[in-house]
Amino acid sequence: MSNFFTVFTYTPWDNLNTKILTEVKLLSLKSIIKTFPIIEPGFFDDLLSNMYNFKHYSWVESIKRIVGPNNEDYDINPWNFIWGMDQKRRIFQFLIQKIEYESKDSQAILVALAPPELAKLFEAHKEGAILRTLSLLNNPKMMKFLIVLAPRGKSIVEEQQLLQINKKDLEKLKFINTLKQMPNIKGQWFPTSELKCPICNTPLTQVYSNEVGLVCQNCGFKRVK
Fold first, then answer.
1. Is the pLDDT of residue 175 over 80?
2. Which residues of 57-85 are buried (b: 16+ CB within 10 A; e: fewer)?
3. Most exposed residue of 43, 52, 84, 97, measured as fewest CB within 10 angstroms of its CB?
4. Does any domain span residue 82?
5. Residues 88-129: tens digit of each pLDDT
6. Domain match, 66 and 32 both
7. 109 and 198 co-located in one domain
8. In a domain, 174, yes or no
9. Which SS3 state, helix, strand or coil, does residue 132 take?
10. Are residues 22 and 74 in the same domain?
11. Contact of 54 with 148, CB cutoff 8 Å
């Protein structure tokens, strides 16, 4: 078991290069302070306000995969990755999971962080360090930049699953079409036992007549009783 969460994201600092995924590892908060701290909705309200009012606060949809310490894949929808630098050029990286991601007023869990220096600060000062750091992130005068990375479409894992399903459907369709093209099937699942015209090989149609028993609707061949 690892103590790290891994985020796979496109690179917003590279004009959102969607051809390259960057892998970022963050240390689990549980391995530092034995729990996952809860963040109240007010923090996100202030963050959103700063995004509207300050150019150095931004929101980018770029996350494509979240992998946990046990190599488990998570649904990316509830996750955000905060990436910032303050005026002292200190880096702050936080992985956050919304408890109810469809709710604007949802609490969130502070799941993981980086770099190691920040982990040492949290380990030493615990709740006090968390509160001071969250306050710093929402102080536009103290921050050089702050980016909130959000999910972008479906995760890589979901996309691969959809691709596999579509591939299976395509193979099934090809198999059905092959059956339809086989001789003596006529688009049905099993070969027919109908009598065929000896001239054009078209199925004969039964005629209820005293003289003629079967007739070919294609070439006119008649089979006399």
1. no
2. beebebbbbbbbbeeeebebebbbbbbbb
3. 52
4. yes
5. 999 999 999 998 877 878 899 999 999 989 999 999 988 889
6. yes
7. no
8. no
9. helix
10. yes
11. no
Nearest to 61 by CA among 8, 12, 94, 7: 12
SS3 87: coil
Please report whether residue 9 resides in a domain.
Answer: yes
167 backbone dihedrals φ, ψ, rounded to 5°: -65, -40
| 168 inside domain | no
* Each residue's pLDDT tens digit, 58-95: 999 999 999 999 999 999 999 999 999 999 999 999 99
Domain that holds residue 225: 181-225
Looking at the structure, do residues 25 and 108 belong to the same domain, yes or no? Answer: yes
How much of the chain, in percent, has pLDDT values that exceed 70?
73
Do 118 and 58 share a structural domain?
Answer: yes
Tokens standing for 150?
């959000």
Residue whose tokens read 């590279």? 14
d(Cα 202, Cα 216) in Å, to the nearest integer? 7
CA atoms lying within 13 Å on the CB side of residue 193: 0
**Mean pLDDT of the region 6-29:** 83
Q: Name the DSSP class of 204.
A: P
pTM over 0.85: no
Buried-state track 100-116, b at ≥16 Cβ within 10 A, e below 16: eeeeeebebbbbbbbee
pLDDT beyond 50 at 190: no
The answer to whether residues 14 and 96 belong to one domain is yes
**96 near 108, Cβ under 8 Å?**
yes
* 185 shares a domain with 134: no
